[in-house]
């Protein structure tokens, strides 16, 4: 009965790459960076380093590292100020960052739609394997 | 003008961790594994290795590596068959895999909702910085 589990050639070609999700930008598809980007998207005039750290529950080191990755990709810009006798760091989305994030979210929406459609079809009761298959 | 960019203490505490997205399971929040999981969710009775490879546009090596990660986390199960004179590998979601994936998708939906709400408020025209801030 093993053979009938394979897709036929036409179906396989038709669906080739259907779940490759190329739109899931590697720079953005990272938990911490996703939090940073959404925080900054929600605060159009920027966020101070310490506020951003708090919103994303990140350590100083982690936030710095991820901000650097995002800045190198021109998705965020980092500003310094030493007014009022102390140094402050402000982070803001760039126009590119806003556009790239919007495209990423469109890809994410597709995953959510695919998953929601699949959940309806997934029948956990149909759990028995035909004979000839051995668990590894 | 730098000072007015900081959140006040009450607001900061209130929103602490708001964008931490703890529900974004690290095993699942990876582009290739997300494709594998959605493919398997869409095919409740399992997929042969070669079909899964095609759907996700992955190489043999990459698919093997990611399947191993998912199997170690008990999210997928791997079956072997040597019927019809050749060896075949079938991959299926486990019940745990289905549940964990559903939770992950709920977290993903929240990101999408946050991002959609933020996009409406993001005004790219408000791009000038008050004096005293220096780009890095």
Give a description of the structure:
Two copies of one chain form a homodimer. Chain A is 49% helix and 12% strand. Chain A has a three-stranded antiparallel sheet. The longest helix of chain A has 27 residues, at 95-121. The first copy, chain A, is built from five helices and four strands, in the order H-H-E-H-H-E-E-H-E. Chain A is elongated, with a radius of gyration of 22 Å. Chain A is mostly helical. Chain A starts with 8 loop residues before the first helix and ends with a strand. Chain A has a domain at 24-117: Arc Repressor Mutant, subunit A (Orthogonal Bundle), CATH 1.10.10.10. Strand 2 (76-81) of chain A pairs antiparallel with strand 4 of chain B, so a sheet runs across the interface.
Summed up, what is this model?
Chain A has helices spanning 9-14, 31-42, 49-56, 60-72, 95-121; strands at 47-48, 76-81, 88-93, 134-135. Chain A has 136 residues and is mostly helical.
Total strand count of chain A, please? Answer: 4
Helix content of chain A: 40-55%
Main β sheet profile of chain A: 3 strands, antiparallel
Q: What's the CATH C level of the domain at 24-117 in chain A?
A: Mainly Alpha
Q: Tell me which CATH architecture of the domain at 24-117 in chain A applies here.
A: Orthogonal Bundle
Question: What's the arrangement of strands in the largest beta sheet of chain A?
Answer: 1-3-2
The protein's oligomeric status is homodimer
Number of helices of chain A: 5
Structural class per helix/strand content of chain A? mainly alpha
**Could you list the spans of chain A in which at least 5 consecutive residues all have pLDDT below 50?**
none
Distance between the termini of chain A: 18 Å
What general outline of chain A do the C-alpha atoms trace? elongated
CATH homologous superfamily classification of the domain at 24-117 in chain A: Winged helix-like DNA-binding domain superfamily/Winged helix DNA-binding domain
Which range does the strand content of chain A fall in? Answer: 5-15%
Task: Kindly identify the CATH topology of the domain at 24-117 in chain A.
Answer: Arc Repressor Mutant, subunit A
Specify Rg of chain A, calculated over alpha carbons.
22 Å
Average pLDDT metric of chain A: 88
Q: List SSEs of chain A in N-to-C order.
A: HHEHHEEHE
